[in-house]
Design brief:
three-stranded mixed sheet, 0% helix, 45% strand
Length: 118
């Protein structure tokens, strides 16, 4: 019969987030930079996914803080939603939303959206 011994884990499990900046009305998410991202949206924008083969299997969140009324454009074509549904983004100022993602392939980003945290 095996005897179980206690194991002490050490180290940090702290997660970090990268801030996405809107440049020329584009919010580029470079998946190789991190798992989690924060977008402080203060203008209309579109997402651009920058994905490589090493990102396959990666999952995380994109927090969208609307610091002003902000409307995203359609998501990139490689984005897949449940049942192919369109996302009805919350666009009002002072709201927060969460876009969860999973990189299934370099041409397939699976997302789900929860919005209007106030």
């Amino acid at each position: 019969m095996a005897i179980l011994q206690s194991t002490i884990l050490s180290g940090s499990l702290e997660r970090t987030s990268d801030t996405i900046t809107i440049v020329s009305n584009t919010a580029s998410v470079v998946f190789s930079n991190n798992d989690n991202f924060i977008l402080n949206a203060d203008a209309d924008y579109k997402f651009d996914w920058v994905v490589s083969g090493s990102n396959i299997g990666q999952s995380g969140t994109i927090i969208i803080n609307n610091t002003a009324d902000s409307t995203p454009d359609l998501l990139p074509d490689i984005t897949k939603t449940p049942d192919g549904a369109a996302i009805l983004f919350v666009t009002a100022s002072s709201t927060t939303s969460v876009l969860s993602y999973y990189v299934a392939a370099t041409d397939k980003i699976l997302v789900s959206y929860i919005g209007n945290f106030t």
